[in-house]
Predict the 3D structure of the following.
Amino acid sequence: NAGVMQNPRHLVRRRGQEARLRCSPMKGHSHVYWYRQLPEEGLKFMVYLQKENIIDESGMPKERFSAEFPKEGPSILRIQQVVRGDSAAYFCASSPNDGRDGYTFGSGTRLTVV
Amino acid sequence: GDSVTQMEGPVTLSEEAFLTINCTYTATGYPSLFWYVQYPGEGLQLLLKATKADDKGSNKGFEATYRKETTSFHLEKGSVQVSDSAVYFCALRSTGNQFYFGTGTSLTVIP
């Protein structure tokens, strides 16, 4: 039973490029969450999605960031025109419900903007 | 707003020593409390949880008790092993869909 799969594990982008981070939830999980971990900080909530719907995007920066979870395929977190401050570890998590019992996390994507 | 404060690390202990990692919280309503563990190069794994006051969560020899009067959820283990070396995160979930995480406490256990 595969866990939450994130790819790529490491991603290097030049300033101004686009970054696409992928997340396949655990089998049977239809709820997906994205968190960002900046150096020396805890994880910060970004967005919560359920199949084809954004439920809560209150933690998402208003510009350049978007997320989707299509009916078929993985959830995608997209960052357009990346800047140095976007360098962080991005974690995806999934759950079979609204997360009240906790999440299962992926191993993360480490984004470095040069 | 909701928040979690946990003791800063890093913490270094000898094998078989007693471990305490402090965690206090601020929340509206009645949050559920969690401890997650992150091993090097991996994602966070749920270690234990408690959903109401006086509940004790336990797993793999780790314990934490939900103390409403002191708004705390300290993590303890009686005898740590080298394999317990990791970063430990305290977290809460109250109203809404998101978790609030502490900044993490790095634990290194030496033989």
Summary: Chain B has a mean pLDDT of 93. The CA atoms of residues 21 and 75 of chain B lie 5 Å apart.
